[in-house]
Write a structure and sequence with these properties.
Rossmann fold; eight-stranded mixed sheet
Length: 368
Amino acid sequence: MIIGVPKEIKTLENRVAMTPAGVEALVGRGHQVLVEEGAGTGSGLVDQRYLDAGAVIVSAPDAWGAEMVIKVKEPIVSEYQYLRDDLILFTYLHLAAERGLTEALLNSGTTAIAYETVQTPDGNLPLLTPMSEVAGRMATQVGAHYLEKHQGGRGMLLGGVPGVSPATVVVLGGGVVGTNAAKIAMGMGARVIVMDLSHDRLQYLDDVFQGRMTTMSSNEANIRAYLKEANLLIGAVLIPGAKAPNLVTRDMLSTMKDGSVIVDVAVDQGGCVETIKATTHDDPTYVVDGVVHYGVANMPGAVPHTSTFALVNQTVPYAMKLAEYGFGALALDSTLAGGLNCHQGKLTYKAVGQAFDLEVTPLSEILG
């Protein structure tokens, strides 16, 4: 198969979808890999390393002209021109928050496989996990930065000092993002409260962290109560492939302290805070009702060297299956099949259909 790796052009997105080692693995199996010139520069991977691994360095149209295109982030509007009915696109999509992209994929007939909905039988999301780990750890780091007075925050040190109380960090969601955010917050000395719907998950977190965090059932009453105490709120809610629910409404915002900070990692799925909107690394924050909002939808792009290698470590085995068997790989691997969102003009992922009231074709019908 001919595989294309375009350069990411989302604002300040420096990750790349393939490392030289990944190229070498694919080329070693007889596939051709076309890497756009400069695609890896932001991650410290120069073109010569790709050439040495067996890739061909090409232009953007040539990379997009491959049989399968592997990316990091969803195509933006200027890339819609490359979508076509004989293309397999393998990347993060987050369609439930992107009606325009959903319609572009359906109208083009592109076969679109989303990293974030590739799901194992036990419910794990192997291609989402590495970036969730990065984003969770970054969320606390970013929140601590914006709590500084000259960044618009309350002027608090996250861990406090002897004789002065630490900041209170409230984490909505105890999954991969939330656990990593809480881990870093505790490491920095903050007071941490994690909320989740699953009592089993709360028990697990309580056991693993030996009671050093407060665990609370996620419901409106508890959220309202702890928002009043929060200096940093981290949104870490995930419903695989679906739009995130609004757990923090506009009226709740007025109960938060001036200069408190919200980092909503769920923003790429619409966000779990009603007042959140997607921002970029070059203009990451805005203020509503005295509360600093951080809504960068590609947080791991700020640490591309770490993020690229963490992501590609997980995606290459699935990319290899697609390269070997094409669309037929989905019939052979149920985990990979869960990633299918669009195929030949048909929407195949239920949560996206629910988000936009669109007809969904069952996966079983598509795979025959």
